[in-house]
Write a structure and sequence with these properties.
The protein has a 5-stranded mixed sheet, with helices on both faces. A 3-stranded antiparallel sheet has the order 6-10-9, with no helix packed on it. It has a two-stranded antiparallel sheet with strand order 3-4. It has 9 helices and 10 strands. The radius of gyration is 21 Å and the shape is globular. It has 342 residues and is α/β, with parallel strands linked by helices. Helix 4 crosses helix 8.
Length: 342
């Protein structure tokens, strides 16, 4: 394990004190208000929490973390995506926000993903570069990033306290409320968070329901007011990632082999979270992301089954199935589900 003395960049421990105070106030207010609403104005049952809390307890000290943590969940209700304010208008699987997310799942330096730091290419400082850095950055440590080559945001991965972070991800990427509580296909972003970090993160699938009753898409006026006296439930599954003999570690091994082939072909290695066109669009790379995403969805389905719901139609997890919605993106669909972009 790398030590501070051996790192090739001056460590940035944590954000400023005002930032940390503001963050604590915001998170404390949001968390406290949500708990009062969920357990006071509504009834909420939670299953598997003790095991999940044990996982969190092991991660309290940032310097003792050995890997990142991903909680992948299904939620019938409204969800505000992480980093929505820093979301690139270019969007997509390879936006710079995803690069930051991959780095949050790792520990610095972010020179090259699987080889010696000396093999890192020079940093491209041009505005057209997909890996924008500021004048105070080095090839080993990036303090800011850009979503479009013009704006600038502080890089979350710049701080030591955020190494091997916890990312709570909503793989469906949109509100989907079906009477049978079925899921849409999962998007591929979660595959990048599993395949590309330096070590396999812990992966805890979750099932959340009841929020659709609090804010259903068919609700009438006043739409902006959440409904009360509803029953909600949260189910935590077992950790399916980590360093065990899991399908995800097998997929990561194949990914590393693919990265090595690409390095030889390109004649250089790319920094952590930055991909060549071959690793973005190549047939093998796409197949690995598809399989990884399918396995994550299967893990969430296992929690759904544990909750007591019957198995869904296998076709529900296929992109082709949802293409039948046609050009209609929001509202009530032919299968009686309600859909809304987030």
């Amino acid at each position: 394990m790398a030590t501070e003395a051996s790192r090739p960049f001056p460590p940035t421990k944590q954000p400023s004190l005002p930032w940390r105070i503001g963050s604590a106030l915001v998170m404390g207010f949001v968390g406290g208000t949500s708990r009062i609403f969920m357990f006071g104005a509504n009834s909420t049952e939670v299953h598997g929490l003790d095991t999940f809390l044990e996982t969190l307890d092991k991660r309290k000290a940032p310097e003792r973390r050995e890997r990142g943590l991903i909680t992948a969940f299904f939620n019938l209700g409204q969800t505000l995506p992480t980093y929505r304010l820093a979301h690139s208008p270019l969007g997509g699987l390879f936006q710079s926000t995803m690069t930051e997310a991959v780095r949050l799942m790792s520990r610095p330096p972010f020179t090259t993903p699987y080889s010696s730091p000396t093999a890192a290419p020079p940093v491209n400082q041009s505005l057209s570069s997909p890996d924008i850095t500021d004048p105070f950055s080095s090839a080993n440590h990036t303090y800011t990033y850009s979503t479009n080559g013009i704006d600038t945001f502080p890089a979350p991965s710049a701080y030591d306290t955020r190494q091997y972070s916890w990312i709570h991800i909503f793989p469906e990427g949109k509100v989907h409320q079906h009477p049978l509580k079925t899921m849409r296909y999962f998007k591929w972003g979660i595959a990048r968070l599993i395949l590309e970090p330096d070590v396999c993160p812990d992966i805890v699938p979750m099932w959340i329901e009841g929020n659709d009753q609090i804010m259903h898409e068919s609700r009438q006026w006043p739409r902006f007011i959440p409904r009360v006296n509803k029953h909600c439930g949260i189910w935590f599954g077992d950790n399916v990632g980590g360093d065990g003999n899991t399908i995800f570690n097998d997929l990561r091994r194949k990914w590393r082999e693919l990265v090595e082939k690409d390095r030889i072909k390109e004649g250089r290695a790319f920094a952590m979270g930055v991909l060549s066109d071959g690793l973005k669009y190549g047939k093998e790379a796409v197949a690995l992301r598809e399989e990884c995403t399918r396995q994550v969805r299967g893990a969430v389905l296992a929690v759904r089954r544990k909750r007591g719901l019957p198995d869904e139609d296998p076709k529900a997890g296929l992109v082709e199935t949802w293409r039948q919605e046609g050009g209609k993106r929001e509202g009530k669909m032919e299968d009686e589900s309600w859909v809304k972009d987030v």
